[in-house]
Amino acid sequence: MDTDSYDARSRERFVPEPPKRVDAPERTAFERDRARVVHCASSRRLAAKTQVVGPQSDDFVRNRLTHSLEVAQVARDLARALGCHPDVTETAALAHDLGHPPFGHNGERVLDELMDGHGGFEGNAQTLRILTRLEAKTFDGDRSAGLNLTRATLDACTKYPWLREQGSTPGGMHADGSSAATRKFGVYVDDLPVFGWMREGVDGTRRCLEAQVMDLADDVAYSVHDVEDGIVAGRIDLNRVAHERDAVWETVRSWYLPGVDGSDLDEALAGLRAVPSWPGAAYDGTRRSLAALKNFTSDVIGRFCGSVQQATFATAEGPLVRYAADLVVPRTTRLEIALLKGVAAHYVMQSDDRVRLMSQQREQLEELVDAVAARPEQTLDPMYLADHRTAVDDGERRRVVVDQIASLTDASALGWHARLTGGGAPR
User: Fold this and answer.
1) Position 426 in a domain
2) What is the pLDDT of residue 424?
3) In the prediction, which pLDDT does 167 show?
4) Does residue 148 lie in a domain region?
5) Is the dihedral of CA 263, 292, 290, 295 positive or negative?
6) DSSP-assigned states of every residue in 77-143
7) What is the pTM of this model?
8) How many domains does the structure of the chain reveal?
């Protein structure tokens, strides 16, 4: 890691902060960033937010917090191997899902539809809003500056550095089984001042290397771990895939890779099956079986990251930091990742019970937004009520209501819905 490649501008904060106490432990600016994200309330809430199945359904399955920790580990290891700052990249990974509302992408779709005409809603744009405004750590006069992270860290957290109207037309499906019906973007118009400061000197919509590493780590982690969860839940047997590949390949095409040739997916499957730890027998719940599964997932993650490291080193010279280089992901690696995501989608996310539940969740979230918007003085938490009272128009007031709803966990959203509408939990 070339720490000298991160200059004073990379370490600058939107609001200058006084020096820390002389008796406090010495920490770098990027270490402080990481600590701020770890200790913020939004991070704790991830433990009760959906990843693939509801966090209350089983002690083993992943929630948004455990997923974020796993993404952070993959991102940190890859960053160290490439030579960019591990703390910057790990913090971005820890923060990447902070803006997800209750019910994941399914809830995101509802909130975006309800905010149409007022700037929309997007989990990554909400993450930037949380980091720069909603999580109270530093104030700029009368306005919260959020966690006031350094420019390099905040930029690394920005997966889609553009406005809603600049986002591409959505298509395919999200990993949780909801349709990708919303444009991907990373900033609301209301948050452009800090976004502009963060992106000073950057041309267009290019992402910094650390953001690219975070994005890949996210893809790698959930492609591998969703399959692992499906295997443990008894829904996936990897040795069935070859015999049912026509149906699985169709899921890969409709969800992730439209038009991909079946022979390419056959080759990707052959590559994964050649991994020495590929499970030779069905998972049976024993420690030996779990150990074999863990070895396989570890080997596959290493396979993906190793191929990216080699390809990136082959096309770029150091230092591999910020905007001095771009991450290179070989086509074979992209195919293998998409194949694993398609396997999880085919055997887990398309089940009838899951589809029914997601429909009920969307209906409940829409009703909850309407209920809170109708009685803000009686329903909003104090910090959001203060924002609502100072809002200047209906759009700003609507944004505050959505900020409140997006902050809720799955369980608290259901509790609020039951309390405010008299409705029950999903059946």
Assistant:
1) no
2) 55
3) 87
4) yes
5) negative
6) HHHHHHTS-HHHHHHHHHHTTTT--TTHHHHHHHHHHHTTTTT---HHHHHHHIIIIIS-S-EETTE
7) 0.91
8) 3
Residue 261 structure tokens: 């040739």
Domain containing residue 139: 3-205
Ranges of residues in the chain whose predicted pLDDT is under 70: 1-4, 21-24, 50-62, 170-181, 351, 423-427
DSSP states of 3-66: GGGS-HHHH-BSS--PPPPTTSPP--HHHHHHHHHHHSHHHHHGGGS-SSS-TTS-SSS--HHH
- Domain membership of residue 305 (yes or no) is yes
Nearest CA-CA partner of 426 in 381, 368, 380:
368
Q: Are residues 313 and 388 in the same domain?
A: no
Domain boundary among 187, 205, 223: 205
220 plus 332 within the same structural domain: yes
CB 277, CB 293: distance < 8 Å: no
Confidence (pLDDT) at 53: 47
Q: Are residues 34 and 169 in the same domain?
A: yes
φ, ψ of residue 135 to 5 degrees: the values are -85, 115
pLDDT given for residue 363 in this prediction:
94
pLDDT tens-digit readout, 354-369: 778 888 999 999 999 9
